[in-house]
Backbone:
């Protein structure tokens, strides 16, 4: 979700200075552009909810009131309420300069228990068959390596180890690095793709650009690193971004909305009625590994889950019905049950017993 934070000085007292400090704090800690926009949105909502009071003049009671309002009046989801809380915790810790105390009395939004949507292997193949080139490759990595969409889009060239069949996922969810598999089937398509990306990078360099954003301010320590091939995005955006003030140009990674829209169209074209999305590939990866007999701890490590309880949810969507139990009618010796000539004519019961008790 892209949210533009207003910068009109008349809109809010203290706001330009506060919002500039918030953006600077987020930028210096290398938060994504999307997170910056989202945090700006929630800080603005918080301030206007309290009639344009400056956050420095407010504390836990005001935060409590705002979060409770979101849950009770606006009926937001638990994840949305947590997002607002994270924005305010960041604001007070890194901009205002104090920690937020106990918020125990806040009414929390209910978190519904939802099982993940999982595609069958045939459904995965059907969706992939409706994708092409880099979109096919991204979706194949999400399914074949269990990557989240943003983890895939943020891959750098050096994160792919073809000799060891490994992918290094840097700073995944929860700021954790992990190693997952590089499927053998995807090695050649990925190598072919990188050759095309390298040609684009060399063309950018020849035109005076070809520098990418670096993590952890590494460009200060290694000023030539942003132009190094190893640090380039595996899936760069098609067009270079341009800064009209500095006239700089560069390439960010592909925008996630492009992939989300493309996968949605592919699912529709495949005739699949499930609410499948990019993340469904990751759900399917985990479930299919469980169905193949891999242990839950191995899958936990591949997915990067901190708690195995998070991974355990996939045991509830295993094939063969609830809890992974095979129905007795599906057993090899149950052939007689499927012989329609021997099936009782239950549909005649109502006519035969009409009026009787």
Residues:
């Amino acid at each position: 979700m892209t949210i533009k934070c207003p910068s009109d000085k008349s809109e809010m007292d203290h706001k330009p200075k506060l919002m500039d400090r918030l953006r600077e704090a987020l930028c210096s800690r290398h938060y994504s552009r999307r997170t910056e926009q989202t945090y700006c949105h929630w800080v603005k909502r918080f301030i206007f909810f309290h009639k344009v009071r400056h956050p420095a003049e407010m504390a836990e009671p005001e935060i409590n009131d705002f979060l409770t309002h979101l849950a009770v009046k606006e009926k937001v989801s638990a994840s949305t309420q947590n997002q607002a809380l994270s924005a305010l915790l960041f604001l007070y810790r890194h901009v205002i300069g104090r920690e937020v105390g106990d918020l125990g009395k806040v009414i929390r939004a209910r978190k519904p228990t939802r099982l993940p949507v999982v595609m069958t292997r045939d459904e995965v193949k059907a969706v992939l068959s409706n994708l092409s080139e880099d979109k096919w490759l991204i979706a194949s990595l999400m399914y074949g390596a269990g990557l989240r969409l943003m983890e895939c889009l943020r891959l750098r060239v050096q994160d792919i180890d073809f000799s060891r069949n490994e992918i290094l996922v840097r700073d995944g969810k929860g700021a954790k690095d992990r190693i997952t598999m590089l499927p053998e089937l995807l090695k050649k398509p990925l190598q072919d793709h990188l050759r095309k990306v390298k040609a684009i990078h060399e063309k950018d360099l020849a035109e005076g650009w070809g520098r990418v954003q670096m993590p952890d301010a590494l460009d200060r320590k290694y000023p030539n690193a942003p132009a190094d091939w190893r640090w380039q995005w595996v899936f760069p955006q098609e067009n270079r971004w341009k800064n009209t003030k500095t006239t700089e140009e560069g390439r960010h990674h592909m925008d996630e909305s492009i992939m989300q829209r493309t996968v949605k169209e592919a699912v529709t074209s495949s005739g699949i009625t499930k609410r499948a999305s990019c993340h469904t590939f990751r759900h399917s990866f985990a479930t299919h590994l469980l169905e193949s007999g891999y242990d839950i701890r191995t899958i936990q490590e591949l997915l990067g889950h901190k708690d195995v309880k998070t991974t355990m949810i996939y045991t509830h969507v295993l094939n063969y019905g609830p809890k992974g139990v095979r129905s007795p009618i599906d057993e090899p010796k149950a052939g007689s049950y499927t012989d329609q000539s021997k099936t009782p004519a239950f549909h005649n019961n109502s006519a035969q017993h009409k009026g009787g008790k």
Q: What stands out?
A: The longest strand covers residues 166-169. The domain at 15-96 is CATH 1.10.150.130 (DNA polymerase; domain 1). Residues 128 and 136 are 6 Å apart (CA to CA).
